[in-house]
């Protein structure tokens, strides 16, 4: 998830009119539609949340736990909905972390539980 967010940022960051944003173009409605779309593709969109979710999942995994399967299923549904709305895009990549989270939950359920 972190890799997807970083790649998304790398692709769109060079297109962003950072100086206009910082000057208030978004706030005062001076930004054109491309500028607004780029804003929603970067800081206004899923990038920050996806990094945080990726860091959280990594931390939980390092602690020997797993996130509930519904997290993977929701990510998969979100990606599928986005692909159905806009067609093949980077949203296809949501299948990777979603599948890994679902598979981790399934394999964790199959392991014999040990008492400590």
UniProtKB/TrEMBL annotation:
<dbReference type="InterPro" id="IPR045590">
    <property type="entry name" value="DUF6463"/>
</dbReference>
<feature type="transmembrane region" description="Helical">
    <location>
        <begin position="67"/>
        <end position="85"/>
    </location>
</feature>
<dbReference type="Pfam" id="PF20064">
    <property type="entry name" value="DUF6463"/>
</dbReference>
<feature type="transmembrane region" description="Helical">
    <location>
        <begin position="37"/>
        <end position="58"/>
    </location>
</feature>
<keyword id="KW-1133">Transmembrane helix</keyword>
<protein>
    <submittedName>
        <fullName>Uncharacterized protein</fullName>
    </submittedName>
</protein>
<keyword id="KW-0472">Membrane</keyword>
<keyword id="KW-0812">Transmembrane</keyword>
């Amino acid at each position: 998830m972190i890799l997807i967010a970083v790649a998304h940022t790398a692709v769109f960051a060079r297109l962003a009119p950072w100086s206009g944003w910082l000057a208030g173009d978004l706030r005062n409605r001076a930004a054109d539609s491309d500028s607004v779309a780029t804003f929603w593709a970067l800081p206004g969109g899923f990038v920050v949340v996806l990094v945080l979710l990726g860091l959280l999942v990594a931390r939980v995994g390092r602690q020997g736990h797993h996130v509930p399967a519904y997290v993977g299923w929701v990510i998969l549904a979100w990606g599928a909905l986005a692909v159905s709305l806009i067609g093949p895009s980077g949203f296809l990549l949501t299948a990777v972390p979603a599948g890994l989270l679902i598979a981790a939950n399934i394999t964790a359920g199959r392991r014999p539980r040990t008492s400590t």
